[in-house]
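User: As part of a screening pipeline, I want to sanity-check one entry by hand. Below is the sequence and the SMILES for flavin-adenine dinucleotide. Please return the complex as structure tokens so I can compare it with the automated output.
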Amino acid sequence: MTGGEPLIGIVGSGIAGLRAAKALLRCKVDARIVIFGDEVHRTYNRPGLTKRRYPLSDTPEMAIAEDLKVNGVEHKALTWRLDTRVESADLRNKVLGLSTGESFAYHALVIAAGVRPRTSVEGTNECTFHTHRTLRSLDDAQHIHNELQTSKKITIAGAGFVACELASLAKEYGCEVVMLEAMRNGPFENILGKRIAIALRRWITQNGVTFLTGDSAKELLCRRSDASNLEFSSNRSLFIEAIGSVPNVEWLQGNGLDLSDGVRVDEYMRVPECEDVFAAGDIARYPDPWTTESLTRMEFWKNAIDTGDLAGRSVASSLGHDSKTSRIGYFPSIATEVFGLRVQIAGNPKISDSMELVCGDLDQLDCGVLVKFLRAEVMVGVAYLDKGARFNSVYIELLKSLKAH
Ligand SMILES: Cc1cc2nc3c(=O)[nH]c(=O)nc-3n(C[C@H](O)[C@H](O)[C@H](O)COP(=O)(O)OP(=O)(O)OC[C@H]3O[C@@H](n4cnc5c(N)ncnc54)[C@H](O)[C@@H]3O)c2cc1C
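Assistant: Here is the complex for your manual check:
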């Protein structure tokens, strides 16, 4: 590496990478910034991939890409290297190996490579009965929206946020939908517990989806074992796996980092084992501001924004700039919509030991249900499910006391 202005590499052109770059530019660091992204697209609104149906058109791909554009940044200090995968990293010598065969020497590195969908079976996308898909990228979504427009039947493995949104979307496209949840009783059980999961399953079933659990679900999980015989190609239905995600850490192996669940960082997004290396977004596992004794990794848009900003400011501070760095103080909140039912979750219900119904009736979700989650009798989370906004003022009050916690 020659002298001159420092070179900052950002791996990942998603929202966390973009926000880290923006924060660096705001801090007016005298550095060159290079963002590497293995997708061909600039940063886009990933949550939007499942949020709405697109009308039939000759070029649905263009319509989706246009709709989900995120305000980027053009700056002479910033270079975008899209369609370029970082394949290896030598963190001791500060060099990245790129898919183009080049290497890239940096002074500081931000890891914002996100996650990818977990799959039960690696391999072909086709079997005798199905076209198999997962959904993470704009390209995946373009395929899926296209296929939903012409599919009659779709099977979705999983019952998390992406699976539920996909089920709603597929119904809007007019498909017959089967959901398979082999491990639990219904949606979001790992976050909201069994009673709400069962209530949500009932809601989804009432909206025309066949929702199978346990052995009935297991029986329909496709292992793609019969990929050799593709003669029924015209009859194949869509099978989407939405069964969780895996952090994109493989390119970091061999550097002595703790990669057991993403990349471990401290409360300033610094990788403790390595000076001048930072991580942000879905891939970063940081000290949970809510529990002090554990680490957390969040896969939410707002978390990627906040940690991306913080990583950028921490890089600036490591280069000697006064960047007003403050430790992560993220307040977790997420919202989704399942067949018109808005589900809002705030705080960290996962760490609760009990649940209290504040308003409503779990048998009538569409009339509104507000629940609080407690740990040692202290509120640690809230969930509000409603078709309208009946209990909004109570929800806001609960949020205020949760934030004051
Ligand atoms: C369908 C869907 C719906 C969602 N809905 C919501 C929602 O409603 N609300 C919400 O809060 N969150 C939602 N999320 C989650 C949210 O999108 C993520 O939390 C957020 O996008 C994470 O941003 P990130 O920048 O950390 O990672 P990503 O957005 O995954 O960006 C990482 C980028 O790095 C690239 N990359 C990976 N490895 C390499 C490499 N080695 N070299 C170069 N590039 C690499 C990846 O291809 C990707 O482009 C949703 C996600 C999906 C998939």
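Points to compare against the pipeline: The two ends are 48 Å apart (CA to CA). The chain has three domains: 7-60+70-116+246-318, 119-243, 340-404.
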